[in-house]
Amino acid sequence: MIKVAIVDDHKILTDGLKTLIEESGIAKVVCLWHTASDCRASIGSCKPDLLLLDVGLPDMSGVDFCKELKQRYPDLKIVALTTHNEYSVVRQMLENGASGYLVKNAMTEEVLAGIDAVANGNIFLCHEVDVLMKQPKERQLWLSQRESEILKLVAEGLTNGEIADRIFLSPETIKSYRKNLLLKLDAKNTAMLVRIALEQKLI
Questions:
Q1: Are residues 190 and 154 in contact, defined by beta-carbon separation less than 8 angstroms?
Q2: Which Pfam families does the record match to this protein (predicted)?
Q3: In the Cβ-directed half-sphere of 95, how many Cα atoms lie within 13 Å?
């Protein structure tokens, strides 16, 4: 029986996942957290074989948390569970030690197949992500209308606070958008972000 832990801030999703896993007969859920800090505090005593990790956690990036967990627990198998299906996010999760990648609308059978495959030492990408990774890289970037709007304002040199005032969102929300844009465009800083955006004609 595979011991699975889940860290995801969407309670309805985690409750559904827990039921699905418990009823499968191949695994059981031994721990469930809604933040990275809660997971960090007790994963050592929980000792799961496999962790389903949300990329968009409320208190830190799941991409960074994946790297941290693999450094602390090299034997822990990690499967990304997320709404993000961008090439750069998938690649960074795999580079940081994830062995599987599932989008949240994946079929029930894919979720269980992913848990089983990764627990047995294999790499597993759900069908949607597998198709994405085989496409030419230049076709793999898609920005929402809000992301495009914020990217243009970043390129104009506005701070998070100034952008927040301009489009009536909180500075924290803008910070989160900016972080996601860096991740999506595979940029290390704002200057690189703007350069890539110009090269790819996103602004």
A1: yes
A2: GerE, Response_reg
A3: 9
**Range with top average pLDDT, 31-45, 88-102, 141-155:** 31-45
**Cα separation, 89 vs 35, whole angstroms:** 19
Give phi and psi for 175, each to the nearest 5.
Answer: -60, -40
- Nearest Cα neighbor of 138 from 203, 63, 80, 196 is 196
User: pTM (2 decimals)?
Assistant: 0.68
Alpha-carbon span 126 to 148, nearest angstrom: 28
In the structure encoding, which two tokens stand for residue 19, read together? Answer: 């039921």
- The b/e string for 173-188 (b: 16+ C-beta within 10 A; e otherwise) is ebebbbebbbbbbbbe
Tell me how far apart the alpha carbons of residues 119 and 79 are, in angstroms, rounded to a whole number. 10
Q: Residue 165 half-sphere exposure, CB side, CA atoms within 13 Å?
A: 4
Q: Which of 55, 39, 56, 57 is nearest to 47 (CA)?
A: 39
Model confidence pLDDT, tens digit, residues 87-102: 778 888 998 999 999 9
